[in-house]
Amino acid sequence: MRAFTYTRAADTSAALGAAIQNPEAKFIGGGTNLVDLMREEVERPNEVIDINRLPLSQIEELPDGGLRLGALARNSHTANHLLVRQRYPVLTQAILSAASPQLRNLATNAGNLLQRTRCYYFYDITAPCNKRQPGSGCAAIGGFNRIHAILGTSEQCIATHPSDMAVALAALDATVQVQSANGQHSIPIEAFHRLPGDTPEQDTNLGHDELITAIDLPATPFATSSLYLKVRDRPSFAFALVSVAAVLKVADSQIKNVRLALGGVAHKPWRAHAAEEILTGAQPTAEIFRRAAEAELQAAIGYEHNAFKIELAKRTIVRALTTLTERHLA
Amino acid sequence: MKTKEVGRPLDRVDGCLKVTGQARYTAEIPVGQVAYGVLVRSTIAKGRIVAYDTKAAEQAPGVLAVITHENAPKRHPTKEFDPSDKEPSASPTTLLVLNTDEVSWHGQPVAVVVAETLDQAEHAAALVRVSYAEAEPARLSLVAEKPRAFVPEKVLNEKPEVKQGNAEEALAAAPFKIDYTYTTPPYSHNAIEAHNTLAYWEGEDQLIVYDSTQYIFGVRKMLSEMFALSEENVRVVSAFVGGAFGSKGRAWPHVGLTAMAAKVVGRPVKVDLPRKDMFYMVGPRTPSEQRVALGADAEGRLQAVIHTGTTASSTSNTFAEHFSFVTRHLYASANILIQQKLVRLDMVPNTFMRAPGEGIGTFALESAMDELAYALRLDPIELRLRNEPGKDPTMHVPFSSRHLKECFAQGAEKFGWNQRNPEPRSQREGPWLIGQGVASAFYPANKRSAEVKVHISIDDTVVLQSATHEMGTGTATVQAQNAADQLGLPVGKVRFEYGDSLLPKANGSFGSTTTITVGGAVELACEDLKRQLLRLAVKHPSSPLHEASYDDLEARDNGLFYKDHPTQGETYAAILAREGKDSLEAQASFPAFLKEKLEEMAYSFHSFGAQFCEVRVHEDTGEVLVSRWVGVYDCGTILNEKTARSQFLGSVTMGIGMALWEETKWDLRDGRIPNSSLSEYHVPVAVGLPRIEVHALSIPDPHTPLGAHGAGEIAVTGAAAAIANAVYHATGKRIRNLPITPDKLL
Questions:
Q1: pLDDT-based confidence at B594, cuts 50/70/90?
Q2: Which residues of B does the annotation mark as catalytic?
Q3: How far is the alpha carbon of A187 from chain B, nearest alpha carbon, in Å?
Q4: Is residue B263 part of a domain?
Q5: Pairwise CA distance, residues A236 & A103, whole Å
């Protein structure tokens, strides 16, 4: 680990000020990912700005019936919050399917969005990686790529975003509240993370001098009928091979509302708009589920070891929708 | 001997120390002035080091030394571990890293950085730049190297080939047959305690090494060869080991490098391998490709048994993992063909992993038996019972003890096997397909050598001493129980000192041999002590034992008493007091008598078991969950119900990990291990395990000390096959390449 300066920020403006002053500095929350990256010398900040004392840990109801999740609320606290459990079960399930209780107790909501890919080669500083070192090449494309992306990849990078929580947030149309020196603004979750394109080193559209303060969940009454289905190699403490966050409202044998997002398949949580379009207004049948899944995965590209994810993603979509539909009928 | 303590589920004697953090592991030994070493890994798999740039590292804060092959003090090559040596060295390889510019595997240590603190050493190690020349591509694939596979001289101490009758002809003629290839991947060791070493020198030629090892005297031998010291000048200490599983039977490169670094900086040096180094600097279980072909008559009697295949060793070691041993001893057949081949890869030297040989061999053989049972439409247990051999099928001697039938009978009843519909894909619960599978477990019951000293004080305190190891298996507990019964004292009176080369010599604790070996030595030492005590007593007309002969007596109530006179006898304290002695001691070696050595050849010593499991396979996603486990094991007398049970539970757990989750991935371009971390190398987790029900027959083996066998490995064997067989039963899909990951079942 490279030696670094530790700064504790007393408030948001002090934190932002410190970041503006030092372009190499990094904010630290739970540190569950950043510290690992620093130990491996993947991240080499010369300063960490500890934001844990900032008053951003609240979870509160918004006037419209939505919820505001504080940036520093811990993942475990968020998952187990009564209103989250009642109104957004998909989010609770997604968070609890991730990592371990110890990690969730430390990891923050904002940190969860900002965690970096678990691509093996990104973590190994002796391997080429365009995300870690732009222009050095991608070791994953011709290497071992079982855990890599099948959608939205580029010739520069086939890494996936590792978060489960963010997949649920994508299905819930969350917005990320951001503070900068110029004031507060919000970024829709879909515009928050990026596809790799020619700049895989940039995971998100958050600037260095910007700080996430909260994640807002809009009021979504039908999200009580939601599900997070995660397929992985090991039943705990493993990243998703494929995951599906699904929100579904069926009435009068018709799909009134549907939201689908996929994890483990792309550089960002993958909102399945093509599938949603086919499903909306249709009768909830196995055939339509499969057709929607096929449409969503039409553009998917498999590599040597991850081609199975294409079929797995389709099946997982169908299974998630089937399960929710059965619940409606029951 | 009357057993009061042996067999009892006594809590482990070191349990309290461990759960309160007072048990000191190697990395926690307090030594003043300790400096920290970090090893730099090569980033190519084969080639030469052309140049180092160590300037930045040398100038980094706290750095005491940057040692490369260019400035490393000369060490001497060491002999590779050879099981046919009487006292083998623990060296995994003949290659001496940092004595050469040659790179033989990706991750081979190419420099050692020593600094005042661990963080400083880690940071400086990342600043070392090494340039390499790569002349020819590395050989990294077992499959690609198969054309160059050769039959090694031996497989452990056995012949690589066995031919009885004509198996290929018999196979061709058999009315029922199967013939398939099974593969197992490389697996990496991941005990909770990573390997670590702390070394310092006293004067020029006294080396003291604390090492997390399961083979103290092998480490001592290697270091004495490496530094040209007499063995007495090297002391190796290993009090508590946080899991070994075979990986600590070898002294990996860090051990010698730590001692060397301590010499260079003139201070104690500690090297505690980071998790990544566990993948790169500690040998894995070899990958294997095995063919099993079985031919049977209509009644299911085996007419032909063929088990051949290939494993890998490195370019600098020779260990051919003995996957074929199980087939030499498990089932009867007139026609048996066994052949092992080996390829050499540019990899870290491979090594033992819990149930080496049998762990992967039983996957192939016991999967094949299941396939044959389906071909015959015969119950898989019945198929096995019909092929029970009267005596060992290739050694042609009786088994010392074999109760496989009883294991299946008990297991079938407890599991409810007979309710099973044998039809594949016949049970489901929602999207979950359910299946049940069974397999035999098999592991040798070998012995090694050990010396034990027993010391009794006038207050009846007994101290046992032997340089054996406690790596969590319960050795200290069960041998205290053993000595308590041998001497007829409460177990609380006995303390066992182990883990130090200053103590009487013991062999490595691997191969499930420690219980019998150390147990036998404890028995002999205690007998010697009792005979000495009796000799003291018979001299005196006043002693109630004046007329006694040893065979008339038994040890109980803290003394020697007549077997047929419950009250007539004398306590040890009384015997010692009369002589004016405070204490007495005795020492013995095992195996001691010609009888044991002859028995070794007159019988086939093995343990057996029956593994039953139920799995649930998700029909859409291919996820596999093991939902039920029943294991029944035949490994002689159980010395401690609780520690043995823990061994079985841990073994089944490792078997499940081997079947479903674990796999070391090698990037075939350069030997890199992409998943060299605990988040991507999937060891078992509690939520993935069912309630594991284990039972031991506890039938004594009449030909071993205490009637015991080791219990540490038997329950790994057959586990992966039982799971693969259950997956077939659930889905109708046979998986012949481990691990059984979801993609293989889509």
A1: low
A2: 713
A3: 31
A4: yes
A5: 13
**pLDDT band (50, 70, 90) for residue B593:** low
Are residues B81 and B168 located together in one domain of the fold? no
Domain that holds residue B518: 448-590
Give the distance from residue B43's alpha carbon to the nearest chain A alpha carbon, in angstroms. Answer: 7
Q: Using the predicted structure, report yes or no on whether residue A330 has a pLDDT greater than 90.
A: no
- Are B179 and B274 found together in one domain? no
Q: Is residue B252 part of a domain?
A: yes
Question: Same domain for B239 and B333?
Answer: no
pLDDT digits 0-9 by tens, A76-106: 999 999 999 999 999 999 999 999 999 999 9
Instruction: State the average pLDDT for chain B.
Output: 96
Domain end (from B260, B280, B300): B280
The answer, for A316 touching chain B at a CB cutoff of 8 Å, is yes
Q: Tell me the chain A residues in contact with residue B680 when contact means C-beta distances shorter than 8 Å.
A: 118, 120, 147
| CA separation for the pair B509, B504 (Å, rounded) | 14
For A142-236, where are the E strands, in sequence order?
175-180, 183-188, 210-217, 226-231
ipTM of the complex: 0.97
- Token pair 């396979």 is found at B617
Do both B405 and B275 map to the same domain?
Answer: no
Distance CA A315, CA B618 (A): 11
Q: Is A118 on the interface with B (CB under 8 A)?
A: yes
The confidence score (pLDDT) of residue B1 equals 66
CB pair distance less than 8 Å for A127 and B622: no
Residue B710, both tokens: 């080791």
Cα distance between residue B419 and residue B436, in whole Å = 11
Same domain, B493 and B619: no
User: Which residues of B fall within a CB distance of 8 Å from A319?
Assistant: 431, 620-621
* Average of per-residue pLDDT across B607-611: 98
Give the confidence band of B596 by pLDDT, cuts at 50, 70, 90: low
What type of residue is B263?
K
CATH code for the domain of B262: 3.90.1170.50
Residue B15 domain-assigned? no
Please tell me whether residues B195 and B163 are part of one structural domain: no
Are B685 and A39 an interchain contact pair (Cβ–Cβ within 8 Å)? no
Check whether the bond before B591 is cis (ω within 30° of 0).
Answer: yes
Is B439 found in the same domain as B467?
Answer: no
Question: What digits encode the pLDDT tens for the residues B561-570?
Answer: 999 998 999 9
Residues B475, B241: contact at Cβ < 8 Å? no
Note whether B122 contacts A39, CB cutoff 8 Å: yes
What domains sit in chain A, N to C, each tagged with a CATH number?
A: 5-52 (3.30.43.10), 224-329 (3.30.390.50)
pLDDT band at A196 (very low <50, low <70, confident <90, very high): very high
Q: Please list, residue by residue across B501-536, b when 16 or more beta carbons sit within 10 angstroms of its beta carbon and e when fewer do.
A: bebbbbbbbbbbbbbbbbbbbbbbbbbbbbeebbeb
Q: What share of chain A is helix, strand, coil (3-state, %, to 5)?
A: 30, 20, 45
